[in-house]
Model the fold of this input.
Amino acid sequence: MSIKWLSNQDYEKLLSGLIREYSLYAPCRSEKELGFRLVEEISQIAIEDSGNTRFPPKSLFFPQSEVLMKYNGILHSVEKEEKRKILFGVRPCDARAMKLLDHAFNDEKAPDEYWQSKRDSAIVISYACIAPGGTCFCTMVGGSPFGTVGSDAQFVKLEDGFVIRIYSEQAEKLFTDLPDAQKKMTQAANDLFDQVINGMPAMVEKQQVHDKLLSLFESDFWREISESCLGCGVCTFLCPTCFCFDIVDETLRKERVRNWDSCMFRIYSLEASGHNPRPTKSERTRQRVMHKYAYWVDQINEIGCTGCGRCVEFCPVNIDIREIVEKALHWEMIGGAK
Amino acid sequence: MENPRIQKIRAEAQKLLIEEKVDVVIGFKKGSLPSKMQPFFASSVEEIEQLELNGLCSNNLAVYLNHRSKGERVAIICRGCESRAIQTLVLENRHARENLTLIGIPCIGILDIHKIEQKLQGSISSITEEEGQVVVVSGGREHRFDRLDLLHDACLHCEHPTPVNVDIMIDEAGWIPENSFDKSYCQAFRLLNIAQRYEKFSHETERCIRCYACREACPMCYCEECFVDHSRPQWIESTVEQAGQQAWHIIRAFHQTGRCVSCGACERACPLEIKMTYLTDLLNQDMERDYGFEVGMLPDQLPPFATLSETEEQFFHQQDGDHVH
Amino acid sequence: MKTVESKKPQIVLFQCQYCLASSMDQAWVENDLPANVKLIKVPCSGRIDPLYILNAVQGGADGIMVCGCDPHKCHYKEGNLHARRALSEFRNFLDMLGYPSDRFVFHWMGINEHSLIQPLLSDFENKLMNADLEKHLDTRQVDQEYF
Done:
């Protein structure tokens, strides 16, 4: 792994080069929100010291609506993505989330080609978080504001420029013209990390959370924490690790399309017989929390939540998954079921 | 300023629980972020101490009546829009009025958190409300704003902030603005030409991600099967396409004709800040003009689409151009 | 409903099955409607959900005609009264959002009115031919080869 230095003066030259040679996607400001868009010129890029895009970059690999196949007498696949792209300015929580999603989409026997082909042709460059926000809690779930899981390279912003830490060969090629970072700079980056990590929440022990949640499966706990839930899909649609989808045939367009679906909707688990194994908000909220904090741990020994905080920020009724986990861990202590 | 109001609310709520007149009190309590409040369901006297009411209480609590079990005796803290929504729900036979105890309090408007964020650079540490002003601490500094500048648009257009048909009225009026709010903003929309109106409508709806936060936040959307969830046949495609986004908003607004209380909870719930109250405000204005009907004001006046009149005949043979905007 | 060759305005006719007094009119509507008019027959005009109208508008209909019965003549007593209330407001609503109200007409047929449907349709068609048929809410995407 090499570490390079990019001074503020050279930033424009490097970025303009990347924009020319690749499809570069970075956070850009639109009328209402920050989102990953294809950058045509450098002034569009809007990466600030704090804050994140409304939609996670996973939408570039797994869009909300995607045409899988067209039919015209016979079914034929659509062209798979091959254009080289760079995702620039991704937060460590979102980069880690895409690595987690590789487990979901990358089944050995049946890999998801739509996800895989886009992933293979993309280089992920993350920005270390030097000013985590009030809803950020990556450290609670085993991540870090300077975390590098899922990143091909990471930019750490210092006063005079960027320390660039490189983790893959394909990223190495992008920065060959840059000088190596001096010890003074890498030390400054480390010092910055120490400062930032100080204010972040403590990590929960994943096995402990897993076991406690499983033990609460039948308890009243879920009815209480889901009481104010409206049952909309905001948390799932903004989540960087959610991957549930529905497949429909749009006959008027002769297309087979895949669309995001949400386990928070009542009809998500409604069966053709009319039976619904998750009939109330209680079961559905239990499913959402346990999928992230228990079932992922069972499957790959990782918590499926990366602490990006979007669900906390945008939930219309301020349901806070941090509070839910905290409450679960202490449930018996406060008198258990009412 | 809030203190006498909230103390009186808590006192009334505690009394109801002590006298065992209700099983639960629905209100708000402090949220996990400086800009948020959480809907709260208190069933003990101790829990009542957590009840709060301020400009960050952005949900319409009437929606929770649709989530509770039928026989439950519920008390709800009601501002203007909650009381009118409940009145309409009772009229539509969704809830028995005798199971409800409404604690009414005149509303002083809900703050629009996006308006606050737009005026600041950094993140928000705290929001406090004083008489006519809102104090926001952000980036280590204190910022003062006029409450009127931060009110949500639906509140700026509200015609009935005082609750109707409540059992207990908390008589502390709170800060009342000098301007009277009304729906004349609709006139500006009507005066645009048809291409401009379409442009405004399609511009708002093209952001829609069909998360249905608007539907779930709305007390009047209680259908067990929503028209978008119907399959066989599927009327509205679930793919995120312009036709689907537009159809969703058009039909949902139309299903609210004569029912929407203009609370704006839908807009505040929307993660993409889509404007949609103007659609139902336009429709409800037509209901007022054509049928003399105002949503949720009277306990025995059915909405226009739930009733008929023999005098309908006279409308049947008028010219096509009879409806003037 | 985008036909490639036709320059005639595309009209969708929602017809209540009882409103046409004469069987000749009914036979004409079922068998000899011109190609640019699509028929949706309903048991009663009260059955017409605004969703069907919107479907037609989004599918590219240049004109919508709703035919039902005069008051007191509804086979189901009040269906037409419900239809008039809801659909005339829907017409206003569509006009507010981009579909001009003169492209959406109602005809409430009396029990003795016959031989009206053909001239009504051709008058409507002529009006539409001279109007500016902006395609605002016509947003449904279809495969061009489908039709």
Remarks:
- Chain B has 13 helices and eight strands.
- The first helix of chain B runs from residue 2 to 18.
- Chain B has two domains: 2-112+151-306, 113-150.
- The two ends of chain B are 43 Å apart (CA to CA).
